[in-house]
């Protein structure tokens, strides 16, 4: 229980000995857990480069021909990482305060590569002779605002705006400004949907909201967390109002933004009670966001991924083949994902025959242009993708939303159909798509991307099955 309070709480002082021993022990535990997950999923250990620069780990895995990783591995690693991230941030903030520096320096734990330097420095800095500067939150602020019970109304300061209202507005407006500013810098300046935008930004939005809200007076933790979440919602509403993004993509981003803003609010709430924490320190932390996005822009490299879906058809390959190279109009979709705006296939036709022919698969948002690269009737059809339409029509109050991610971020590179003969004149039809996803962190967005590709494959394969089995 003492260790749990030390790791997950915000009150215990963190000396350099405690920081060093906990860091080494938790680091070893994290490596063991990650390797256990990786070996169970792929049969290979997790690259140690992953703890320095994720892009290097990606290249190392590709060079070793690890192949595609199952979805459950990515989800498991994200869930395992969250408590370690919280422990690292909370202990680094408390260690920085204990060492006599600004507790905001502990937020460097979130910056890749720099975090290793920060941890080494924090583990080396001694505590000042006067004792730790870390102060636990004052009693009572977990549930209610701290207001003296015997305070007379005339003794309270007279202001034009109530201090609580002013703190609320400053906290929320600061957070919204950070979110909108990073959208402009990351998406429209660097053309990057990255981890700095989806991970670091909501975390620092929560830190800033909580720090500004609690800086002049200690306020309740539930109210602080609620204000941080409200700031995320307001930022999303502004983005929707000005047609920067649509509702579906905002809904997909909200879960991770909400969790990180809550964690950030906990840190900011604790920082506001520290004598060494200043608003200028918070501003310097925020100014690091564009630099983090710029560094990520230089190293981020999307991975080529494969998604395969299969179906069994009660017809021989010879009868299935004509419906693979081209098929008639599909019925209107009944799936909710397609009805909400995700692009769906409608029909396909082919110009010519053999290698060099061009297949046109028409989606609800436009056609895919697919030059044939392998023509082996009735067994295999492969093609490249030289042109493709937007991946979806955004759900929005406006008729057209030209969100930046709709074109050029989820890119199909090639596709393939394989017809495998089965006993009793049946066929196993497999459809594969190779694609890249330039929205980081890939591990999170791949969950949505591959689910959508399976839905698209299933719609096409199901239609081919119906056509091939019809007499």
Could you please describe the fold and organization of this structure?
- By secondary structure, the chain is of the alpha+beta class.
- The protein has two domains: 267 residues, no CATH class; 166 residues, START domain (Alpha-D-Glucose-1,6-Bisphosphate, Chain A, domain 4), CATH 3.30.530.
- It contains 13 helices and seven strands.
- Strands 1-7-6-5-4-3-2 form a seven-stranded antiparallel beta sheet, with helices on one face.
- The protein is elongated, with a radius of gyration of 27 Å.
Tell me the total number of β-strands: 7
Beta content comes to 5-15%
How many helices does DSSP assign?
Answer: 13
Q: Sheet bearing the most strands, described? A: 7 strands, antiparallel
Please estimate the helix content. 40-55%
- Cα-to-Cα separation, first versus last residue: 70 Å
Average pLDDT rating: 84
Secondary-structure element order, as H and E?
HHHHHHHHHHEHHEEEEEEH
> In terms of per-residue confidence, which ranges show pLDDT below 50 for 5 or more consecutive residues?
54-66, 141-162
């Amino acid at each position: 229980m003492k260790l749990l309070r030390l790791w997950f709480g915000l009150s215990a002082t963190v000396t350099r000995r405690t920081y060093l021993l906990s860091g080494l022990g938790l680091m070893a535990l994290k490596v063991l857990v990650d390797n256990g997950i990786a070996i169970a999923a792929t049969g290979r250990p997790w690259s140690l480069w992953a703890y320095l620069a994720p892009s290097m780990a990606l290249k190392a895995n590709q060079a070793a021909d690890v192949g595609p990783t199952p979805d459950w591995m990515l989800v498991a690693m994200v869930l395992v990482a969250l408590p370690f991230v919280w422990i690292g941030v909370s202990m680094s903030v408390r260690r920085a305060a204990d060492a006599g520096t600004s507790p905001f320096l502990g937020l460097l734990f979130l910056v890749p590569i720099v975090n290793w330097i920060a941890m080494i420095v924090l583990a080396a800095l001694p505590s000042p002779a006067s004792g730790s500067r870390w102060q636990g939150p004052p009693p009572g602020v977990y549930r209610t605002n701290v207001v003296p019970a015997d305070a007379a109304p005339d003794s309270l300061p007279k202001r034009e705006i109530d201090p609580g209202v002013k703190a609320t507005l400053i906290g929320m407006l600061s957070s919204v400004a950070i979110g909108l500013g990073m959208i402009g810098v990351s998406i429209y300046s660097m053309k990057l949907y990255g981890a700095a935008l989806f991970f670091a930004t909501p975390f620092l939005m929560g830190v800033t909201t909580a720090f500004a809200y609690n800086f002049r007076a200690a306020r309740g933790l539930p109210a602080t967390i609620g204000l941080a979440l409200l700031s995320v919602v307001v930022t999303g509403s502004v983005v929707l109002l000005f047609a920067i993004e649509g509702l579906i993509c905002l809904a997909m981003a909200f879960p991770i933004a909400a969790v990180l803003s809550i964690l950030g609010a906990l840190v900011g709430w604790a920082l506001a009670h520290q004598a060494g924490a200043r608003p200028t320190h918070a501003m310097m932390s925020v100014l690091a966001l564009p630099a983090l996005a710029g560094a990520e822009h230089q190293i981020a490299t999307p991975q080529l991924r494969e998604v395969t879906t299969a179906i069994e058809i009660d017809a021989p390959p010879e009868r299935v083949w004509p419906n693979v190279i081209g098929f008639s109009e599909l019925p209107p979709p009944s799936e909710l994902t397609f009805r909400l705006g995700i692009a769906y296939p409608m029909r396909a036709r082919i110009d010519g025959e053999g290698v060099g022919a061009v297949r046109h698969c028409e989606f609800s948002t436009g056609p895919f242009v697919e030059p044939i690269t392998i023509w082996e009737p009735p067994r295999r059809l492969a093609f490249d993708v030289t042109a493709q339409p937007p991946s979806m029509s955004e759900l929005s109050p406006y008729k057209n939303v030209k969100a930046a991610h709709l074109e050029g971020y989820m890119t199909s590179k090639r596709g393939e159909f394989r017809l495998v003969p089965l006993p009793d004149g049946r066929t196993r039809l497999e459809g594969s798509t190779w694609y890249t996803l330039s929205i980081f962190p890939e591990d999170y967005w791949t969950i949505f991307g591959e689910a959508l590709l399976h839905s698209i494959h299933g719609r096409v394969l199901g239609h081919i099955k119906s056509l091939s089995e019809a007499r």
